[in-house]
């Protein structure tokens, strides 16, 4: 049976909307931290920027990553198109390799000053919740899509693997940024393999040594393997300060200021 690829945008949107709604409700039921800056001030710009990101990606990358996978498969391009692997093995390996790619890309965006100026829009949020996982500057989203398309074509990853990965990446980005309280025993168990909200919250600390740790969104393996794992924030999750030292006024939560932030001097 041929997969109905015309439904791909709706599959992605349905997963996105469902996970966002579920986590938003869960945060209300079991919040990890009390928020000094509420949803009414932060969410309009955070959700507005993801809407703009989605529109730009669809306009500038009409085939996107799934389309690139189909294009490469039709021409026999890429590593997996040269190997005779079972479908389950190819999909599993592709998802793991692409997750490693996103980890490496995230480290790069912290290490290169010009890329950090773009990425800091994500870190400048004054609170940490499900919408923080959607708050990325359009330049970062477009660069990320270009990197992803190149990786997909070099790998020759199956289109289904790419769709699974993109749905997982979007869902785990929201999950790992959620203001959700987990029982300590569940958190300890999950983070053997997966990034939990408590694990990733450390990455959003105002302290640079904590900001430059815990880069993963999905698999916890990479931070532990490459020495970027930090177990807990020094001040504790309730006492830590979220964000970066600059752009801390509430006016910086407006959409137009988020879009202009990479081009502005810190604090201006």
Automatic annotation (TrEMBL):
GO terms for cellular component: membrane. The keyword Aminoacyl-tRNA synthetase does not apply. It holds the Pfam family FA_hydroxylase. The chain crosses the membrane at residues 45-72, 79-103, 141-169. Its main location: membrane. Keywords: Membrane, Transmembrane, Transmembrane helix. It comes from the Bacteria. One of its GO terms (biological process) is lipid biosynthetic process. The keyword Disulfide bond does not apply. Residues 92-228 form the Fatty acid hydroxylase domain. One of its GO terms (molecular function) is iron ion binding. It is found in: Membrane. PANTHER family: STEROL DESATURASE (PTHR11863). This is Sterol desaturase/sphingolipid hydroxylase (Fatty acid hydroxylase superfamily). It comes from Sphingomonas kaistensis.
């Amino acid at each position: 049976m041929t997969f109905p690829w015309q439904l791909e945008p709706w599959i992605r949107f349905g997963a996105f909307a469902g996970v966002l709604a579920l986590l938003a409700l869960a945060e209300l039921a079991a919040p990890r931290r009390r928020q000094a800056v509420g949803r009414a001030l932060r969410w309009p710009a955070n959700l507005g920027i993801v809407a703009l990101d989605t529109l730009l990606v669809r306009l500038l990358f009409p085939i996107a990553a799934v389309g690139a996978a189909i294009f490469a498969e039709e021409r026999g391009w890429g590593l997996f198109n040269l190997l005779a692997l079972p479908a389950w093995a190819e999909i599993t390996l592709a998802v793991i390799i692409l997750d490693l790619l996103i980890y490496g890309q995230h480290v790069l965006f912290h290490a290169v000053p010009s890329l950090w100026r773009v990425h800091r829009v994500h870190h400048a949020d004054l609170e940490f919740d499900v919408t923080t996982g959607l708050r990325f500057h359009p330049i970062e989203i477009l660069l990320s899509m270009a990197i992803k398309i190149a990786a997909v074509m070099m790998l020759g990853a199956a289109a289904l693997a790419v769709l699974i990965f993109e749905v997982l990446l979007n869902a785990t980005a929201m999950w790992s940024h959620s203001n959700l309280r987990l029982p300590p025993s569940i958190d300890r168990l999950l983070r053997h393999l997966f990034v939990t909200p408590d694990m990733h919250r450390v990455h959003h600390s105002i302290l640079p040594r904590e900001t430059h740790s815990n880069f993963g969104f999905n698999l916890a393996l990479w931070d532990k393997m490459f020495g970027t794992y930090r177990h807990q924030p020094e001040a504790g999750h309730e006492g830590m300060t979220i964000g970066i030292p600059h752009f801390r006024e509430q006016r910086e939560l407006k959409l137009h200021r988020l879009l202009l932030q990479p081009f502005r001097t810190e604090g201006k």
